[in-house]
Automatic annotation (TrEMBL):
The chain crosses the membrane at residues 26-43, 55-74, 80-99, 106-131, 137-155, 175-195, 227-246, 258-274, 281-299, 305-325. The keyword Membrane applies. It is found in: Cell membrane. One of its GO terms (molecular function) is transmembrane transporter activity. CDD domains: TM_PBP1_transp_AraH_like. Keywords: Cell membrane, Membrane, Transmembrane, Transmembrane helix. This is Ribose transport system permease protein. It is a multi-pass membrane protein.
């Protein structure tokens, strides 16, 4: 699906010819098909087109957030800022489009401003990482706290409900049977893959995760690319926050709750390594579908939703173990 870091020439930042589809690349799509078929046999409701629509619509926001976090994971970093960044963008867009709190009616401009706010928070994470040499999980936790603080200040004790027809239509109107949110998610996956595959930023993200020292020794200043990756991730989170506002019809400080763990889970299940250098946007998109099909299928066959968090945890542990097994066998080291 994508080119692993070992297939990137760090000196020229150009992908080398592919070596064929590995088992790790084929595993997640095969798992998706198997899980879908199992639930289709167990539940007649699961295999209906209406349920497929529900799965795709429910996966839209997570797919967009996962696009952003995938670029960070490809570098070997961790991003926990999604909840705060999404909360800030959700409240911001609710106050900038037509709403019950003020006379603003900026429409699409309000959406863009909210995404830029989120990108700025992502940039802050990247700058703290490269300038202060603070581990990424700490800088992004800090950015999340800042985002939640901004969201709380903007919320000001009164929930902003949107009345903007354009933003409301994203979750309501449909094209070819799927909501506009689903098509926005598809567009984001496509854009993310194009950035990953055909831009220097995408190729260097792979190279940083796979062999940052080699890239630095070749004369590349990796710091700007790290900041750019976190900024790009923030923009994806911001769009995710706007999409949640469209779904709920209101801006909530908690709009991004849980999306950080869910996005990391989906990326890892799809084959993007936490250690960086392998995977990509298409891998992670498959992981999103695996998670959403599994979640929907468990509900369809009567499994309590309260078990879903535990199931996700087991899946991510199993996926990480399967991904690092070849490396552990080769190195005989457990960190």
């Amino acid at each position: 699906m994508t080119t692993p870091a070992e297939d990137v020439d760090v000196a020229s930042a150009r992908p080398r010819p592919r070596r064929g589809l590995s088992l790790r690349d084929a595993g997640p799509p095969i798992a998706l098909v198997v899980i879908f078929l199992v639930f289709a046999v167990l539940s007649s409701e699961f295999r209906t087109f209406d349920n497929v629509q529900n799965i795709m619509d429910a996966a839209a926001v997570l797919a967009v957030v996962t696009c952003g976090i995938t670029f960070v994971l490809m570098m070997g970093s961790i991003d926990l800022s999604a909840p705060g960044v999404m909360g800030a963008s959700a409240i911001a867009v609710a106050l900038l489009v037509a709403n019950n709190r003020n006379d603003n009616d900026l429409g699409l401009i309000g959406v863009l401003v909210a995404i830029l706010l989120a990108a700025g928070l992502g940039c802050l994470s990247g700058l703290a990482l490269v300038l202060l040499k603070v581990p990424s999980f700490m800088t992004t936790l800090g950015a999340s706290a800042i985002g939640l603080g901004i969201a709380t200040l903007l919320f000001n004790g009164v929930q902003p409900n949107i009345t903007d027809g354009m933003l409301e239509s994203w979750a309501v109107d449909r094209f070819l049977g799927f909501s506009y949110l689903t098509w926005i998610a598809v567009a984001c996956v496509l854009v993310g893959w194009l950035i990953q595959r055909y831009t220097r930023l995408g190729r260097y993200a792979f190279a940083i995760g796979g062999a940052e020292e080699v890239l630095s020794l070749s004369g590349v200043n990796v710091a700007p690319y790290k900041v750019a990756v976190f900024t790009l991730a923030g923009a994806f989170y911001g769009l995710g926050g706007v999409m949640v506002t469209s779904q709920l019809g209101a801006g909530l400080v908690q709009a991004g709750d849980g999306y950080d763990f869910s996005a990391i889970t989906a990326a890892v299940v799809g084959g993007t390594l936490l250690t960086g250098g392998r995977g990509g946007v298409l891998h992670s998109a498959v992981g999103v579908l695996v998670i959403m099909v599994l979640t929907n299928g468990l509900v369809q066959i009567g499994v309590s939703p309260y078990w879903q968090g535990g199931v996700q945890g087991l899946i991510v542990v199993a996926a990480v173990a399967a991904a690092v097994l070849p490396q552990r066998r080769r190195n005989q080291v457990v960190k």
